[in-house]
Amino acid sequence: xxxxxxxxxxxxxxxxxxxxxxxxxxxxxxxxxxxxxxxxxxxxxxxxxxxxxxxxxxxxxxxxxxxxxxxxxxxxxxxxxxxxxxxxxxxxxxxxxxxxxxxxxxxxxxxxxxxxxxxxxxxxxxxxxxxxxxxxxxxxxxxxxxxxxxxxxxxxxxxxxxxxxxxxxxxxxxxxxxxxxxxxx
Length: 185
What we know:
- With about 180 residues, the protein is mainly alpha-helical.
- The chain is built from 8 helices and 2 strands, in the order αααααββααα.
- A two-stranded antiparallel ribbon has the order 1-2.
- It starts with a helix and ends with a helix.
- The mean pLDDT is about 90.
């Protein structure tokens, strides 16, 4: 549930006036904070906050947010694509996978379900539409096709990435692919 709550940061990104403020004042401090509440924290007792995830899952999440905030500051909706695919998409995958996941598969040591993966795909599409609407980006047929592709990519990457590394791979890959397909070089 923490994943989903943190994802709402996307809707206050316009508050930040510079890329440095967003990346290094708002995002980067969470790298240290999430490490301190991780199971590998040198401060014992704090780690209970993040016991449900993988050792560095929240740390990776903070790292990816910091990178996206710095690289895509001029395109806040692209920052939103990566954060929302990870927060809501992965959050929905977990919630629906635990609750309804009857058709399971295993990748490395992570147990996944078809139902959870489907929830990630559908949740990601929905939240990316909301993100683009929030940032006043017109939803054309071409852009909707890209959203389907990026959501499918997020689902596949999440299902294949082991041990919490999806908190790096999903936001970074979805944002970079979305950028390449919409703005590009």
